[in-house]
C-alpha cells in the first residue's frame, strides 16, 4: 500500500520542516496533500484550558490531511506540526484527482488506507475519553509502538517525548504521567533508555488485561 | 418461503429530484439494480426537460465490496445526471468522493455527512 501511495506523490514538491514548525493551521483550506518521506507530524488542537491536546501522529509513508480532502470538508479541523525534522512531498488535490481517474485499483488502495487511518483516529479519540489513567497510558504506548516503534525485543519510540508530550497525547496531567510511567518502569514495561523503550511482550500482555484493542 | 431483503429503493421526490436509499450489505448486483432504477428516472426527468438531480442516502449501508465500487464508478460515468449528492457516514463519504474521482466526475458527484448538506448542494441553483 505504501509504495502505491508513494507513487502518487513521486512528482510532488519536496519541502522540509524543522521540529515544532506548524505545517497546517486549523481552519486552513486543503491546498496541498502531504506524503511524509521522513519524520513525524502531530495533529493537535487546544482544550479549554489552553493546553495542547495531541490527537494523532503521522509517520513516514502517511498522507495528510487526506480524510479532510476526501470528505470534502471546506477547512482542516486541527493543527498539523512537525514533531521532529520532517520531509514531505506535496501535491495539489487536483493532481491526485488526475492520477485516480480511470484507475479503480489506485482508488481502492486510497479508500483502504483512509479507512485504516480513520479507524486509528477513532481509537485515539475513544482513548482520550477514557477516565482510567493506566488504561489511557497503556493505550497510548500501544499506539506509539505501532506508529513510531523500531526494534523487536525492545521497541524504541523514534520520537523524542517528554512527560509533558505524553500528557498532551493521553489527556492526563503531567504529574499523573510521571506517576504511571514510574509504575510501568517498575513492572518492566518501560525501560530506562535515551529514548522511550518498551518491552512489547509485557505491553501486549498488559493491553490484553485491560481489553485494549489494537 | 425465503424472505426477500430490499437493498435499494428509488423514487421521485415531490421536489423534483430522484431519491434513492441503499440498505444493508451492498454488492455488485444491488448497486447495479440501483443504477438501473436511477437511470430510468433520470431519463424520465430529461424527457420532461427537467434537471436531472439525484440524492442518495447511504446512512443504512452496513458494508460494500469491490464489485459494488466498480459498478458505482460505471454508474457515475454512464447515468446522465446533472448533479449527484450522497450522504452517509465518514467512511462512505470518503468512498464515494474517491470513486467520483476515479469516474472523472468529481465536479458533479459530492458526498456529505448529512441530508441537509447534501440537499443544500443539490439545490444550490434553486435560489
Attribute tags:
heterodimer, A: 214 residues, alpha+beta, Jelly Rolls, Arc Repressor Mutant, subunit A, 2 domains, 4-stranded antiparallel β-sheet, 12 strands, globular, B: 127 residues, alpha/beta, Transcription Regulator spoIIAA, 43% helix
CATH class of chain B: Alpha Beta
Strand order of the largest sheet of chain A: 1-8-3-6
Uncertain stretches of chain B = none
What is the total number of structural domains of chain B? 1
Largest interface: A-B, 19 and 20 residues
CATH topology of chain B: Transcription Regulator spoIIAA
Protein architecture, described:
The complex is a heterodimer of chains A (214) and B (127). Chain A contains eight helices and twelve strands. Chain A has 214 residues and is α+β, with helices and mostly antiparallel strands. Chain A folds into two domains: 2-128, Jelly Rolls, CATH 2.60.120.10; 133-209, Arc Repressor Mutant, subunit A (Orthogonal Bundle). In chain A, the strands form three sheets. In chain A, strands 1-8-3-6 form a four-stranded antiparallel β-sheet. In chain A, β9 (149-150) and β10 form a beta hairpin. Chain B has a single domain (8-104, 113-122), classed as Transcription Regulator spoIIAA. Chain B contains four helices and five strands. Chain B has a five-stranded mixed β-sheet with strand order 1-2-3-4-5, with helices on both faces. In chain B, β2, α1 (28-47) and β3 (53-63) form a beta-alpha-beta unit. Chain B is globular, with a radius of gyration of 14 Å. The mean pLDDT of chain B is 94. At the A-B interface, α3 and α4 of A face α2, α3 and β5 of B.
Amino acid at each position: 500500500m505504501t509504495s502505491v501511495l508513494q507513487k502518487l506523490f513521486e512528482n510532488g514538491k519536496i519541502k522540509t520542516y524543522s521540529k515544532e514548525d506548524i505545517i497546517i493551521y486549523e481552519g486552513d483550506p486543503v491546498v496541498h496533500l502531504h506524503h511524509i518521506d521522513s519524520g513525524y507530524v502531530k495533529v493537535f488542537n487546544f482544550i479549554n484550558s489552553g493546553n495542547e491536546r495531541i490527537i494523532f501522529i503521522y509517520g513516514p509513508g502517511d498522507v495528510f490531511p487526506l480524510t479532510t480532502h476526501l470528505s470534502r470538508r471546506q477547512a482542516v479541523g486541527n493543527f498539523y506540526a512537525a514533531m521532529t525534522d520532517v520531509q514531505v512531498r506535496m501535491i495539489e488535490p487536483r493532481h491526485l484527482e488526475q492520477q485516480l481517474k480511470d484507475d479503480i485499483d489506485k482508488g481502492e488502495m486510497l479508500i483502504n488506507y483512509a479507512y485504516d487511518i480513520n479507524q486509528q483516529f477513532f481509537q485515539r479519540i475513544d482513548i482520550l475519553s477514557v477516565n482510567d489513567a493506566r488504561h489511557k497510558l497503556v493505550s497510548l504506548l500501544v499506539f506509539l509502538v505501532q506508529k513510531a516503534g523500531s526494534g523487536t525485543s525492545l521497541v524504541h519510540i523514534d520520537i523524542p517525548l517528554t512527560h509533558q508530550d505524553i500528557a498532551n497525547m493521553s489527556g492526563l496531567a503531567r504529574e499523573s504521567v510521571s506517576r504511571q510511567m514510574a509504575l510501568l518502569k517498575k513492572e518492566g514495561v518501560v525501560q530506562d533508555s535515551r529514548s522511550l523503550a518498551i518491552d512489547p511482550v509485557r505491553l501486549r500482555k498488559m493491553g490484553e488485561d485491560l481489553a485494549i484493542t489494537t | 418461503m425465503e424472505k426477500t431483503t430490499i437493498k435499494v429503493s428509488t423514487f421521485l421526490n415531490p421536489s423534483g429530484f430522484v431519491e434513492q436509499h441503499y440498505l444493508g450489505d451492498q454488492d455488485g448486483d444491488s448497486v447495479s439494480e440501483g443504477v438501473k432504477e436511477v437511470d430510468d428516472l433520470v431519463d424520465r426527468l430529461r424527457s420532461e426537460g427537467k434537471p436531472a438531480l439525484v440524492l442518495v442516502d447511504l446512512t443504512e449501508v452496513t458494508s460494500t465490496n469491490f464489485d459494488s465500487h466498480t459498478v458505482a464508478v460505471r454508474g457515475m460515468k454512464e447515468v446522465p445526471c446533472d448533479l449527484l449528492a450522497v450522504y452517509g457516514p465518514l467512511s462512505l463519504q470518503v468512498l464515494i468522493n474517491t470513486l467520483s474521482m476515479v469516474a472523472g466526475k468529481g465536479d458533479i458527484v459530492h458526498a456529505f455527512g448529512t441530508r441537509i448538506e447534501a440537499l443544500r448542494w443539490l439545490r444550490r441553483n434553486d435560489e
